[in-house]
Structure formats: structure tokens, C-alpha cells
Amino acid sequence: MANLACTDGFVGAHAIFQPYRISDHSPAILTIPTSYKFTPRPFKFYNILVQNSQFKRMVKESWDMDVSGFHMYKVVSKLKALKKPLRKLLYNEGNIHDKVVKLRHELDTKPKARAPPQGLGATRPTPPPSVMSGTSNTNVVDLGLYPDS
């Protein structure tokens, strides 16, 4: 039971009265459907689309479209026409979030390469070939720093 203003404001509202049990009151479930107004979702540009081989072709096709009107209207119309092809291109890329999670997991489970030791004397420079080969070069003095080959 409601007045006309209530029934006009909440179209489809109804009450379900449950049977009473312990008390002499019966519970009522009031359902008020909410009206859903369609709001377009904002366009988000993902940088991964630029790496796709079809990206430049799609942008060129959309930008070469002939639109009559003021310059700003032309730009907006061309950008609006580009939204659907770019969304389709992103959809064809697959679930990017799942790919990132998978690749991060692969990086975490992959054995890490050991870093070379650091500090004084940890790594030795490669000696010149004349010292390694034992040739007699008068300009090279053998101080015994390098092991004999």
C-alpha cells in the first residue's frame, strides 16, 4: 500500500509478506528495483597497443576518414571512430593482467644468475697475449702475477 507519488517514483516496487510464526506480526520484504542508467565507460589508451603491427594501419584508416564540419568536430569524430577498433585490438591481445602475473611468476621461479664477486682482487684482468704465451717481448716485464699457462 502506497500513495501515487511513491508508485510513480518507484516503478516495479513490491512487497512480499511472509507468514507469521511466533508473533502476530508478519515480516514483509520490500523490493525496490533500481533503475540502471547506461553510462559509457571512459576510453583508456594502453601503451601496449602501439607495439601491435595493426595499430598504425587502424589509426591511418580512421584518420583518413572524411568528416565535414569545424576542425575540432573533425578531430573528435575521428577519435570516436577510432575507439571501437582500438578496443577490439586490445581484446585480441588477451587478458594483459594475467599475462603480467604469469611472466612475473616465471621471473620469480627462474634461478637467478650468480653475480661476480666484488671487492679488491676478486677479479683479475686478462693478461696481454704476450705474457700468456711466454713469448719474449722486451717491453713486457713478467712480475709473476699471472699463472703460467
TrEMBL record:
**Which UniProt keywords are present, listed alphabetically?**
Nucleotidyltransferase, RNA-directed DNA polymerase, Transferase
Any GO MF annotation of the entry: RNA-directed DNA polymerase activity
Q: Where is this region: Disordered?
A: 106-139
The answer to whether keyword Transferase applies is yes
Name the record gives this protein: RNA-directed DNA polymerase, eukaryota, Reverse transcriptase zinc-binding domain protein
Q: Which organism is it from?
A: Artemisia annua
